[in-house]
Amino acid sequence: MQATTLGRGGPAVSRAGLGLMGMSWLYGQADDDESIATIRAAIDAGITLLDTGDFYGMGHNEMLLARALQPVPRDSVFIQVKFGGQRDPAGNFVGYDASPAAVKTSLAYSLRRLGTDYVDLYQPARLDPTVPIEETVGAIGELADAGYVRYIGLSEMGAETIRRANAARPVTALQIEYSLMSRGIEAQILPAVRELGMGVTAYGVLSRGLLNPATARPGGPGDQRGRFPRFRGENLTRNLALVNALDEVARQKGVTAAQLAFAWVCSRGTDIVPLIGTKRRDRLAEAVAGLDLTLSPDELAAIEAAVPAGAVAGERYDQRQLQDLDSERSG
Length: 331
Ligand SMILES: NC(=O)c1ccc[n+]([C@@H]2O[C@H](COP(=O)([O-])OP(=O)(O)OC[C@H]3O[C@@H](n4cnc5c(N)ncnc54)[C@H](OP(=O)(O)O)[C@@H]3O)[C@@H](O)[C@H]2O)c1
Prior knowledge:
It is a single chain. By secondary structure, this protein is an alpha/beta fold. The chain contains twelve helices and twelve strands. The chain has one domain (3-330): NADP-dependent oxidoreductase domain (TIM Barrel). The protein has helices at 32-44, 60-68, 100-114, 133-145, 159-168, 189-195, 233-253, 257-267, 281-291, 297-306, 319-322, 326-330; strands at residues 3-5, 12-14, 17-19, 49-53, 78-83, 85-87, 93-96, 119-124, 149-155, 173-177, 199-203, 272-276. It is globular and about 55 Å long. The protein binds NADP nicotinamide-adenine-dinucleotide phosphate.
C-alpha cells in the first residue's frame, strides 16, 4: 500500500482509507464478525485511515471499530469521525446540530465508544445552517488544543464555507463524494481545496455500489440504496448501461469495473484519498488491487468515454437530502 499525506504537509496516511458506514447501516445486512475481519484485513493490507461516524448505526459503528482495533496499537491507525446527525431511538433523522456544545458532547461520547482518548480527525458531517462554521471549527479547535483531536475536517461543504472555516482554524481535509459518476467538485470545490493545501477523502467512488455490476441493483434485507435517485426506475436502467460500458473496458484490461473506478480516482491526484466502502474481505481485496493499476492515456480516455462526465441519470441524493448539502448550494 502506497502512502500519501492528507493535505500539504499534513499527516501521513495510506493511499486509500476504509469507510465503515456499510458495516452498520444503509447497504444491506452486515455481519459483525466479517466486518471486524474486514477492518483487520484492511490494516494488514496497509490501510491506516479508518472513517466512521457517530450516527452510523447510532454508536454501533464506533463500538465495532473499537472491537476490531483491540489488538492494534492506537498510533498505527488514523481514525476520523463525523458527527452532527441527530437520530431518535427508532433511527429516524431528527435534525442536525454542530453547535459548540454538541461538538464537545458528541466527541466525549465518541471517545468512550471508541475506547480511545483522542481522534485523529473530527469533522461535521454537514453544515449546520443555524451555526456559523467559524463556531463549529472553533469548538473542534478547542478540543484540539486540549489534545482530544489532532486535525479538523469538513464534509460536503462548498468553496466559500471551506474558505471561512480554514480562516478560523486550519482545516486538514474535506470529505466529499467524487467518482466517475459524481464530478461536481471539479468546478469550484477541488480548486479551492487545492489552493488552501487541504486533502480530500473521496466517498462514493463506486456511486454506492452502482459501478460494480455485481452490486449495481439494490435489493435484499437492509439494503436502502433504492431510495437514492440513481437506483430508481428509468435512471437505474440508464446507469446500468454506463456500468456495462465500463465493465467492457475493464474486461479488455483483465480487471474489474470497480477496480477501474478506484484507479480513476487515484489518477486524479495523490491529494485525493479514496474511501473503500465495503463490509467484506473479498471486495476489499478487489478494491485494493485497483489502487495500484496504472492507466495509460488511452485507457483513461476509454474509461471516460464509457462513463462521460455528467452522463449519470439522477442526482446523488433525493431532493430533501440535497437541501442539506452546502456543497450543492455554493460549490
Ligand atoms: N461524508 C459523507 O456524507 C459520506 C456519505 C457516504 C459515505 N461516506 C463514507 O464513505 C465510505 C464509503 O462509502 P460509499 O457509499 O461512499 O462507498 P462506495 O464505494 O461508493 O459504495 C459502497 C458499496 O459498494 C459495494 N461494493 C461492491 N464492490 C465493492 C468493492 N470492490 N469495494 C468496495 N465496495 C464495493 C459495497 O457493498 P458490500 O459492502 O456488500 O461489498 C457497498 O454497498 C462510507 O463507509 C463512509 O465512511 C461519507
